[in-house]
Amino acid sequence: MGDYIFESDDTLTRTHLGALEDAFDAVSIRQLYDVGIRSGWKCLDAGAGSGSIARWLAGRVGSSGEVVATETDPRLLEGLHDDNVRVLEHDLTRDPLAEAEYDLVHARLLLILLSERERVLDRLIGALKPGGVLVLEDFDVAGAGALLAPEDGDAEVFDRVLETYLSAMAVLGADIRWGRHLYAALRRRGLRDVRSVGHAEVWPGGSSGCELIRTNFTQLRRQILDRGTVGHSEWRRAVELLDHEGFAMRSFLLVANSGLR
Fold this sequence. Notes:
The protein is of the alpha/beta class. It is 39% helix and 24% strand. It has one domain (10-260): Vaccinia Virus protein VP39 (Rossmann fold, 3-Layer(aba) Sandwich), CATH 3.40.50.150. Strand 4 (102-108), helix 3 and strand 5 (128-140) form a beta-alpha-beta unit. Residues 44-136 form the Methyltransferase type domain.
């Protein structure tokens, strides 16, 4: 399956992307900053969402550099107006990608959602210039779940809905632990100086991280309920908990893997 799992109406999609940026942009920027991006670099931000990381990259590479931000739906990138940013409507599973073109290739939470992730990974590596840097960020969901809940039984309900959601994701073609496999995948492909850094935290109810999960639960509501392991009342309670001040959960582990071609 090459299609994006979270296809939905515009409002939910934008809420999803906004919560994702609020929850993880600071983490991603720290990883990219450590790469040592310089003025004049040409960068690819694949699956750029609504463009927040592409915008940051544009500030780093300056007027002598260029950032190519790709999305299957370019409407999501309509807020990108930097002179050194080029928005490209592009599907990595189908459309060609220039060879040996970029000093940096970045993608966040993209490969995890693609059943053709191994083939797409090869294409992203091929897009790097010799010596170019690859930075890929993906989830390893192991360990995520409720840490605090307002009423007896709430934590069990939430964890059951979360597990059903993750099972639905896997059926749709996602590899929900892909973040842990990337290190070996990059080493096998001959990248140099491969590094892997993970980030996890506690998300209290009402936080950007919980808003991200709430939106995901809503986008995959039908798939969650169709599995038959949780009912509508349990799904609804899990959604309510994500906005409750007496709730907290351990986040997914976001694993940043980098290496040099």
